[in-house]
Amino acid sequence: MINLPQVKVGIVAVSRDCFPESLSVDRRKALVKAYTEKFGADGIYECPVCIVESEIHMVQALEDIKGEGCNALCVYLGNFGPEISETLLAKHFDGPAMFIAAAEETQNNLVGGRGDAYCGMLNASYNLKLRGVKAYIPEYPVGTAQECADMLHEFLPIAGAIIGLSDLKIISFGPRPLNFLACNAPIQQLYNLGVEIEENSELDLFEAFNKHADDERIPAKVKEMEAELGEGNLKPEVLPKLAQYELTLLDWIDAHKGYRKYVAIAGKCWPAFQTQFGFVPCYVNSRLTGMGIPVSCEVDIYGCLSEFIGACVSQDAVTLLDINNTVPADMYKESIEGKFPYTHNDTFMGFHCGNTNTRKLSSCSMKYQMIMARTLPEEVTQGTLEGDIVPGDITFYRLQSTADCKLRAYIAQGEVLPVATKSFGSIGVFAIPEMQRFYRHVLIEKNYPHHGAVAFGHFGKALYEVFKYIGVPVEDLNYNQPKSLPYPTENPFA
User: Fold this and answer.
1) Angle at CA 98, nearest 5°, toward 92 and 104?
2) Which of 52, 61, 162, 465 could form a Cys-Cys staple with 14, CB 3.0–4.6 A?
C-alpha cells in the first residue's frame, strides 16, 4: 500500500527530580523490551539521550527524536514526572502524542522503588488541559511494562491517521451531481483539520484524459487489469480507456499533490461522465483505493476523507457504500434467521456500483452499470466491478461536517454475512447489532448522508480515539448503542 503514513514513535521517559532517575530508566527499558518481544522493533525508538526532568532536558529529547525521524511521541511516566516539562514536550512536538505511566512492580519495593506515576498522570492531564495541548491517554493509562506495550501498540494506528490528516490533500473533480445535496462538504472543517483541498472542473479532468490518449504505458496497464480480473474480464474492450483514465489520475496526483505527502480523490461519475468519457470509472476507483489512494464516488469529499482515515487505521483497502436497501424477508428467513444472532432489522445491504477493490470481493467481474444503462446506451456504462463483498468483521463509519460547519461522526461495528446477495454491483449483506435504532436515532436524526465508509475489521476503538483527538465533540460521536442505553431522542414508550 502506498500513500499511507508509516509511524515511528519516540519513547521519552520523564522523572521528577525528587524521585530516583533509575526508576524511569529501568522502567523505560522494560517497556521497550516488552514491546520488542511482542511486536518487534519496527515503529518505535527509545530516546536514550536523557530522562526528562527539566525544560532543558525536554529540548534535548525533542532534538533527539526529531533527528531520528520520529513522527509520534510517547511520554512515559516512570515515576511521578515533571508536569511542566513533560507537557511542554507534547506541546512542542510536531505530531500526535500519548501519555502512559508505570504501575508499581512489587510489594517488596514500595520504599525506594515506589514511583507514584498513578498520581503523576493526574497532574499531567491537568497541565495538558491548562496549556490546550492535545494528547491521547488510553482508557486506563497506568500499567506494567507488558500492559504499557499493548497501549503503545494500540496508539500506532491512531497516530497514523492523525499524521495522515496533517499532510493530506483532497483532490475533487466537478460539483456534486444534481440531488446530491446530502453529500455537502463545507471546506472550513477541512482546513481546521489541517487538510488541503484542490477543487477542479470535470472539464479539466477531461482535457487531461484526452492528452493521455496515446500514452505508451496503456498496454502495460491493460495487462495489469487483465491479470487482476482473470475470468471476470467480461468487458475487455473497455480496458484501454480505463487504463488511460487510471494513468490520468495517477499523473494528476503526481503533478498536483504539491507539498503534501498523501492524497485522496473525490471523483465524479455521472450524469455526463459516461457519455463524454465513454465508460464509468468504478473499476479504476477500486484499483486506486487498493493502492491506498481512496477515491469516493459522486464528489463525496467527506466520504473520501473518511475512507482515508480508515485506510490509515487499518493499513488496508477500504470502501464507500450506500446504506442502500433492506434485506427481503424471505432471504432473512432462509439464510439468516436461526443461523446468526441478528434480528431482521439488524440487517441491510450496503451497495455501490462497482468501486470496491477486488481483494474485498468474494469473486468479481467487469460489467456495465445497470442503473445508468436504463437511460443511456449500455456501451458507455461499462467499467463497474461487480461481486459480493467478502464476509467477515467490518466497521461502518463516517466523519462529516454539517452545513453549519460542525464536525460529527459515527462508528458501528458489525459484519458482512456469508449470504449471497442475488443482486448487482459491489454489494454485501451487512449485520450491525441494534441497526434499526442506530438507523433512526443516529443516521436519520443526525442528518447523515447515505454514504458510509467501510473498514474491513473491527477498528471502532481506534477510530473513536482518532475522532476525539481531532476535535469531534463526544456528544456528536455516535455509535450503535445497546438496548440498555437509550438514545436521547428515543421514545421510551415505543
Assistant:
1) 120
2) 52
